[in-house]
Amino acid sequence: RRRLAPLNEDNGRFLLLxxxxxxxLSAGATVFSxxxxxxxxxxxxxxxxxxxxxSRIFNISPPELRAFLRSYEAARAAxxxxxxxxxxxxxxGAFYFVGTVVSTIGFGMTTPATVAGKVFxxxxxxxxxxxxxxxxxxxxxxxxxxxxxxxxxxxxRQLRRSGLLPSNFRRGPAVSGVGSLVGWKPSVYxxxxxxxxxxxxxxxxxxxxxxxxxGWNYVDSLYYCFVTFSTIGFGDLVSSQNAAYQHQxxxxxxxxxxILMGVCCIYSLFNVISIVIKQILNWVLKKLECRCCPKCxxxxxxxxxxxxxxxxxxxxxxxxxxDADGQYDSDTEGRRLSGEMISMRELTASNKVSxxxxxxxxxxxxxxxxxxxxxxxxxNGFSAGVGALAIMNNRLxxxxxxx
Length: 403
Prior knowledge:
The chain is an all-alpha fold. Among the domains are: about 5-80, no CATH class; about 135-160 and about 185-290, Helix Hairpins (Orthogonal Bundle). The protein has helices spanning about 10-55, 60-75, 90-100, 115-160, 190-215, 220-230, 250-285, 295-305, 315, 345-365, 390-395. It is globular.
């Protein structure tokens, strides 16, 4: 009988993360239930007492009063308030709405009421959200590149002070004499600290503005900044909703800039934190590694066919070192250590892989940014991750393949 394959690292990490998220959600639900449930019950009791007293004093039957309150709730959902508010669907209001749509904030204080508006929102949000996510990823790539440039400059300055780097050293492709800078990448933990400091500073400045203009207390302003910048968007607090403000134009511009920069910064910080969480999961998986795995590996090795040759078997034993004459020169070059002849299929596949890697190196060198190529043929095009995860893997030290 064919034995079940052992759980690989990717699946193990996925299952462990799913279990941790489930436990995290349960713990959060327990804490919030303990904190908010008594307040909710007390508010409901006060509201029932208020309804009873109002119905008794003004001689209004409870069904009529509840019907009136339902009409008020419908009006509130449509954006109608007792106090004067700014128009929801003028151009500034509509622009604010589409900004919350494409950034996935979704406050909910403004929603389309017509069928045509709801249908248009579906199409508009499909392309708008995709484009905004792409913008966030490009912002992440550039902010990481900027931080890497600054941190590398500081690292070179530190090496010069310690005497490990010549004073006449200039950045360039010829760094073979300086082994300490070859393959250097910024630490993911340093990047996380810098982004965290910048996010906290930005939130504090934005909170000061909201406290002064909106009249909220500082804690509510910080709460609004986190809910908005993280694109949670509950909608219990929404900025720039009054009919008029002092220096209204300047406040709207500042509000837009703070929200844009805050969302981009928190998005980048979340992705860096996700890399740290992934490293913690890898550490936990190593600690939880079962002791019977060596026996399983030995048994699977014994069960495998000794003479079976799979495409790319030579390349799977070690990473490919790209060479200009990467083709096999003779039949002896195509033999395995055990003396068995390699198949022509593997020979063809190896040559194609070597040629593709060589072409990629030449293209990158011609464009001015050569990179060390280390490719494992077991990996497909998505092996390094996609989107923000791939950016972090390529640019930070703790997630590089060479570690």
